[in-house]
Amino acid sequence: QHLSCHTDMTLSTAVYVNEEISTQPQAAASFARLCNVLFQVSQLAFLKAHEFCTTSYQFKHYALKSMLNNM
Q1: pLDDT value at 1 more than 50
Q2: Residue 5 Cα distances to 20, 25, 45, 50, 57, angstroms
Q3: d(CA 39, CA 56)
Q4: Which of 17, 47, 48, 71 is 20 to 30 Å from 1 at the Cα level?
């Protein structure tokens, strides 16, 4: 479950960044960097991984909504 959660998150983040990069390159690049940092932190906090994944999904949806609202 832990591994599939991280794999899903990484793939969906990659798709998200690819979709956004043409219209919002700076925001997409910043978000990709932030996701990478959060992912590395989550590797250290192994027991918190599921909570991290859930929070990351929520954050990603919020970030996308914010970007769309600001366009």
Answers
A1: no
A2: 22, 26, 15, 7, 10
A3: 9
A4: 17
Domain ranges of the chain: 2-69
State the residue for tokens 């992912």.
39
Pick the closest to residue 38 from 64, 60, 23 (CA basis): 60
The answer to whether residues 11 and 4 touch, using CB atoms and an 8 Å cutoff, is: no
Alpha carbon separation from 22 to 6, 14, 39, 62, 71 (Å, rounded): 25, 13, 24, 20, 13
Q: What whole-number distance in Å separates Cα of residue 66 and Cα of residue 25?
A: 15
